[in-house]
User: Which sequence fits this backbone?
């Protein structure tokens, strides 16, 4: 097929006239058969080769193009009698009802016709919607008589045609294709005649443009036959031919049509002709829509309903939703995901099986031809191999044992080899539902054994992934442009900061957090050997050792900076006069000779080298001197540690921090006692003893890249709240942040492997005395509730402003019971300490679970709620038959005194199930609702664009915002939603200056 | 009793800009003035403003709002028939 580009100026929708259909048709199909006994298509049959051919070895009889390249041509069937089109039943009914049964004029007086014509013309000129005007026209022109007039009876004028005065009998539609006038069923021929009578002017106000559609074309007299390419027949393995559903339906139509012709020609009785006519109508109806209401679906021999035209387009599996809006793509893969803490956040582990299937096109050139030959040699079954070769002329060859040798010999620059995926390739990784941009990120491939995609745990939050069977998709880029664009815009490290809240969404989770806490808490000490083991295991570089002591954070970056500068300065040095003089001074010659040689400026190669080295030395000395004064800055924050000394976890963690990082914040374990703020306020800054500032070591101070005080937990580098991580991305860039995340999670995991972490029900154990205190407290609370109820019954209770007495009582009870749960929890918390209790460590550091979860297990589950209040429903005026009517006590309305550990009694269990059920239903409904909300929002915003100036416009260049967000702030780069946090900045500057 | 809605704390400051300001705005921006967000001439604020000055279709209002992040920001609306 020849290709050329045309611009679509406009699209006109209209109906096809019978003439159009005949003009378009290349075959008048008459024979209801497909192939003859020899397997050849029958002339004038449904498989006539003029309708196009399927087999590439045949040529189309109309256009002469090979099968596969010819899109086919339409044919036509001349229907013996007209039939209604199912899709138009409604419109035909509306038109018939609005026009005169006799003269075919619109049932409006000339003045009204004129007015509506004007109105429609104006609306069309202004490109406005005319559907409201049309609705009015159809309503006004309805003149159906309620009851049929008796013979000779005068009929009210409003039921008559204003043009010819004929009374208008009611016309009703019996869906889908039967139209009755009163109780007489109109035939399709009669309907067509009536529609033919409508004038062009009248048509206009009925919403039909006579230039593109005549109403009588709504009734079919000729049926177009789609080309065979639309309804291909398939040959089964057994050699049997199986026809498409549409072909079957067309055969039915042709058969009935033929019988109808024969019967009519033979002058068969009216009744038989009408029966056949109805049957033709049925077949044409089901040909268009096999699910039309009121029509039994036409079925295949096996009893399966046929898939006809409407069914091909409609619904989720239809052409639109499944083939046009959503397409299956090549170079993609999907499998189950599983975690791998040993790969970088930027990487994704790809099973070898997948790596051998999806390919990257490699363009052969002089520099890579040897590598690519190796891939070809490996072939499709050995991993870094190749599957296809495409020559410069566009021929595609599969690589296999037979073709391998030939391809290897002929491979030349310009060819393309589709090689296997290998380590370092960029791929797109995605998990549905793709709700935000972090749902699709670009990863680097790591080909790994086994059959699952592997991903770093830190990228679980942006994908909202876990490993309970989740599957994810991978797409391989096929062009260098897409790869480059993805690498700079979509790489995981570019998405550490979320535009949702201006903090890191990629960060440490679960064991990373509890691990870092266990590593950095005060009591944690390691022997030198242990410490070095941890450093090595977490892929950190071993610190420098000068023979007797370790130099932690010995400023390698600072010294390398000097080295780099020296290297830069001496790269192209050849030596100046000064250097030459120095050289000459080393020789044993006279001053005169020296001057002579200088003037001559002639040196042999050996001499040139010597002069060069002299010059380099001189430059290096100059630069070193320049930095000599600053050296105290770099040496001041080096931790020195004698060989054999013990290491703290904080020192280990400090190894990963940038050297000039200064930061203070309160960690997640902070109990918000306010003691630190008070001390800081009351003592002069240089007298503050940070060591004792916080009793639980929650006040974090990082000074010049050294973690001086405080523990590392969720607030430090956790997903969504990591302060250190946040600062590193924002100030040192995503590359550094990625490195920090990879290394710190490694370190935390190594830390947790030294201490070990375990939890059991013993962690929720509290002493008997505590249990007694809790019971006593709950008992007191219940008494309080009873006193409130008594006060209510006796009428002492004072109503709160704006509340009824009942509401007041309910609120007070809720408050008392809420406090009861909290207080019992607090009592339990006193006994749940972080020292030896890993459950508490996890809850307090923010790794997993909360203190509420733990206190519900140990002390008291608390009030169960349905619809935001205490439980009300159940029996008449009571929740369960175990209670008296109108009982208001704590237990009767769903307060659970027991803890999960002690177990709930049957009544409590029942109430708990009620509350639990509501929670489940709510989440189910919420996801559906928010999904639809998101969809509408996306549809409303999808065409907005931000211009380089910050201007936001829609696709019609209407201004939406003059500067995006009205402030021009990129939320991802903001400080947790704020433009800047001044308190934090001041604190950091203070630290930098050394207090 | 009639309340001046412009004194309400939720109603930002609206003012009509002069022809010369309008021209300046057009010159300094990369959009067409007619593409600005619209406000109906029957809008209560416009009615209130037209007590002091004549407002016709095509005039531009300057609206000064408070913003948490930007302190104050200025947007414009063009008056349309309503």
Assistant:
């Amino acid at each position: 097929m020849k290709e050329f580009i045309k611009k679509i100026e406009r699209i006109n929708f209209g109906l096809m006239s019978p003439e159009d259909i005949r003009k378009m048709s290349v075959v008048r199909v008459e024979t209801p058969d497909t192939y003859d006994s020899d397997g050849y298509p029958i002339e004038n049959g449904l498989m006539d080769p003029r309708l196009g051919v399927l087999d590439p070895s045949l040529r189309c009889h109309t256009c002469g193009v090979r099968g596969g390249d010819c899109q086919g041509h339409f044919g036509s069937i001349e229907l013996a009698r007209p039939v209604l089109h199912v899709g138009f039943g409604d419109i035909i009914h509306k038109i018939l009802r609005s026009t005169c049964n006799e003269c075919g004029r619109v049932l409006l007086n000339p003045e009204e016709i004129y007015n509506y014509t004007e109105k429609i013309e104006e609306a069309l000129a202004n490109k406005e919607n005319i559907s409201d005007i049309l609705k009015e026209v159809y309503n006004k022109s309805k003149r159906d008589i309620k009851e049929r007039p008796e013979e000779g009876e005068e009929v009210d004028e409003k039921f008559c045609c204003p043009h010819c005065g004929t009374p208008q009998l009611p016309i009703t539609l019996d869906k889908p294709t039967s139209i009755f006038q009163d109780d007489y069923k109109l035939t399709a021929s009669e309907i067509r005649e009536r529609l033919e009578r409508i004038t062009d002017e009248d048509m206009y106000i009925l919403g039909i443009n006579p230039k593109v559609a005549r109403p009588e074309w709504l009734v079919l007299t000729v049926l177009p036959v789609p080309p065979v390419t639309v309804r291909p027949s398939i040959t089964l393995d057994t050699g049997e031919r199986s026809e498409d559903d549409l072909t079957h339906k067309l055969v039915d139509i042709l058969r009935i049509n033929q019988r109808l012709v024969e019967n009519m020609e033979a002058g068969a009785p009216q009744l038989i002709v009408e029966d056949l006519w109805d049957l033709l109508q049925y077949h044409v109806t089901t040909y268009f829509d096999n699910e039309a209401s009121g029509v039994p679906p036409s079925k295949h021999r096996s009893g399966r309903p046929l898939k006809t035209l409407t069914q091909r387009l409609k619904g989720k599996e239809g052409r639109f939703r499944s083939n046009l809006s959503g397409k299956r793509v090549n170079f993609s893969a999907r499998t189950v995901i599983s975690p791998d803490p040993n790969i970088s956040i930027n990487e994704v582990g790809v099973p070898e099986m997948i790596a051998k299937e999806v390919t990257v096109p490699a363009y052969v050139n002089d520099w890579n031809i040897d590598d690519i030959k190796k891939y070809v040699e490996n072939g499709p079954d050995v991993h870094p191999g190749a599957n296809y070769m495409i020559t410069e002329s566009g021929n595609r060859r599969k690589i296999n044992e037979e073709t391998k040798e030939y391809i290897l010999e002929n491979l030349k620059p310009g060819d393309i080899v589709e090689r296997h995926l290998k380590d370092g390739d960029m791929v797109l990784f995605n998990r549905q539902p793709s709700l935000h941009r972090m749902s699709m990120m670009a990863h680097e491939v790591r080909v790994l054994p086994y059959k699952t995609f592997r991903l770093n745990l830190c990228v679980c939050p942006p994908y909202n992934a876990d490993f309970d069977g989740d599957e994810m998709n991978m797409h391989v880029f096929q062009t260098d442009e897409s790869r480059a664009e993805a690498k700079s815009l979509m790489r995981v490290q570019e998405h550490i900061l979320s535009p949702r809240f201006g903090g890191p969404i990629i960060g440490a989770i679960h064991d990373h957090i509890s691990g870092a806490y266990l590593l950095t808490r005060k009591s944690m000490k390691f022997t030198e050997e242990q410490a070095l083991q941890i450093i090595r295991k977490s892929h950190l570089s071993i610190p420098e050792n000068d023979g007797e002591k370790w130099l932690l954070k010995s400023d390698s970056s600072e010294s390398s900076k000097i080295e780099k500068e020296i290297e830069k300065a001496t790269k192209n040095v050849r030596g100046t006069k000064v250097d030459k003089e120095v050289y000459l001074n080393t020789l044993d010659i006279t001053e005169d000779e020296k001057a002579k040689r200088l003037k001559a400026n002639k040196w042999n190669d050996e001499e040139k080298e010597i002069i060069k080295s002299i010059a380099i030395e001189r430059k290096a000395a100059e630069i070193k001197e320049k930095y000599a004064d600053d050296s105290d800055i770099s040496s001041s924050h080096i931790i020195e540690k004698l060989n054999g000394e013990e290491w703290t976890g904080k020192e280990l963690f400090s190894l990963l921090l940038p050297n000039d990082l200064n930061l203070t914040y309160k960690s997640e374990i902070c109990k918000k006692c306010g003691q630190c703020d008070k001390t800081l306020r009351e003592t002069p800054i240089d007298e503050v003893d940070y060591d004792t500032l916080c009793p639980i070591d929650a006040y974090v101070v990082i000074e010049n890249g050294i973690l001086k005080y405080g523990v590392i937990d969720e607030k430090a580098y956790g997903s969504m709240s990591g302060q250190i991580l946040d600062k590193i991305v924002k100030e040192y860039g995503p590359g550094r942040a990625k490195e920090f995340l990879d290394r710190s999670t490694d370190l935390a995991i190594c830390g947790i492997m030294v201490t070990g972490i375990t939890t059991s029900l013993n962690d929720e154990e509290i002493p008997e005395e505590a249990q007694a205190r809790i019971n006593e407290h709950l008992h007191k609370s219940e008494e309080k509730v009873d006193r409130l109820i008594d006060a209510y019954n006796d009428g002492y209770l004072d109503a709160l402003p704006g509340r009824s007495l009942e509401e007041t009582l309910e609120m007070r009870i809720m408050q008392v019971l809420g406090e009861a749960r909290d207080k019992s929890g607090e009592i339990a918390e006193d006994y749940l300490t972080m020292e030896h209790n890993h459950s508490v460590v996890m809850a307090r550091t923010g790794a997993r679970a909360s203190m509420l979860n733990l206190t519900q297990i140990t002390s008291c589950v608390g009030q169960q709620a349905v619809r935001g209040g205490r439980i009300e429903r159940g029996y008449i005026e009571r929740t369960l038959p175990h209670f008296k009517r109108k009982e208001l006590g704590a237990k009767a309305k769903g307060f659970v005194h027991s803890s999960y550990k002690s177990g709930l009694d049957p009544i409590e269990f029942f109430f708990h199930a009620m509350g639990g059920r509501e929670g489940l239903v709510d989440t189910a409904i919420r996801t559906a609702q928010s999904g639809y909300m998101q969809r509408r929002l996306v549809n409303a915003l999808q065409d907005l664009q931000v211009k380089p100036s910050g201007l936001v416009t829609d696709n019609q260049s209407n201004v939406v915002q003059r500067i995006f967000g009205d402030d021009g702030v990129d939320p991802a780069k903001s400080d947790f939603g704020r433009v800047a946090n001044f308190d934090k900045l001041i604190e950091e500057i203070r630290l930098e200056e050394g207090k | 009793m009639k309340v001046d809605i412009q004194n309400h704390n939720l109603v930002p400051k609206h003012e009509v800009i002069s022809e010369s300001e309008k021209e300046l705005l057009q010159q300094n921006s990369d959009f067409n003035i007619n593409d600005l967000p619209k406000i109906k001439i029957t809008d209560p604020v416009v009615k209130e403003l037209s007590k002091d000055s004549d407002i016709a279709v095509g005039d531009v209002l300057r609206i000064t709002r408070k913003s948490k992040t930007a302190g104050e920001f200025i947007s414009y609306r063009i008056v349309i028939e309503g």
About this structure: Chain B touches chain A at residues 29-32, 35-37, 65, 67, 69-70, 73-76 (CB under 8 Å). The CA atoms of residues 29 and 39 of chain B lie 20 Å apart.
